[in-house]
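Hi everyone,

Forwarding the result from last night's run.
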Amino acid sequence: MNTQEVATRLVELCRKGENMQAINELYDQNIVSKEMPGSPNEYASGIDAVLKKSQDWYASVEEFHSGEISDPVVAENHFSCAMKMDCTFKEQGRMQIEEVCVYQVNNGKITEEQFFYSMPPQ
């Protein structure tokens, strides 16, 4: 798959709520995932670590109210999407989250992801 095809498939799966399927299908074994500095799981490397990070995040959600993802913007082997989520977390209550997600694709797989968002007040 080229970058556009990977991006389109990721958005398709996320819109269906199949985010874990997206990881299993589209991510490279040596994926690197970066969150905002100071956030939990700020850096994860390797498919097992990224899967665990995602599973931990879903386990922290008490209720998922809504979510949306923009169409991807593709430039060579990178693409970005904007995501919005409205979730109630077990420890933090209800939050609206907006983030920009940037992905790098090599050899038909996502090899790096990085998320940009405002950190909630501590």
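The beta strands are 27-34, 43-45, 61-69, 73-75, 78-89, 93-106, 109-116.

Cheers,
N.
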